[in-house]
């Protein structure tokens, strides 16, 4: 699973683009380096996958230049089992007002 966040200014300029990957990460048992390929994976190093029925909260810090009063925020969640295979699961677009003191 991949969570992608994009923020754009009213003039269409991209202000921020970030993503987070959720997947189990396996190693070869000899160190903390992630192993690729089913013949080399001997144990889990860590598991960042999304668990069913458990809420997950993420924080993205988006730098907004002075003078911008509103941004368009796009959030996409996709399933990507292999590079190039992208299956959209959920997408959300919101207009966010920026209030400065």
Task: Describe the 3D structure.
The mean pLDDT is 84. With 101 residues, the protein is mainly beta. It contains no helices and six strands. The chain has strands spanning 2-8, 14-21, 24-27, 43-47, 70-79, 87-97. The strands form two sheets. Strands 2-1-5-6 form a four-stranded antiparallel β-sheet, with no helix packed on it. It has a two-stranded antiparallel ribbon with strand order 3-4. It has one domain: Immunoglobulin-like.
Radius of gyration: 18 Å
Gross morphology: elongated
Structural class: mainly beta
Largest sheet: 4 strands, antiparallel
Topology-level CATH name: Immunoglobulin-like
Count up the domains.
1
Largest sheet, spatial ordering of strands? 2-1-5-6
What's the helical proportion of residues?
Answer: under 10%
- In CATH terms, what is the architecture? Sandwich
Question: Which stretches are low in confidence, meaning pLDDT under 50 for 5 or more residues running?
Answer: none
End-to-end separation: 38 Å
Compute the average pLDDT. Answer: 84
Order of helices and strands: EEEEEE
SS elements, strand count? 6
Number of helical stretches of at least 4 residues:
0
How much of the sequence lies in strands comes to 35-45%
Question: Mind telling me the CATH class?
Answer: Mainly Beta
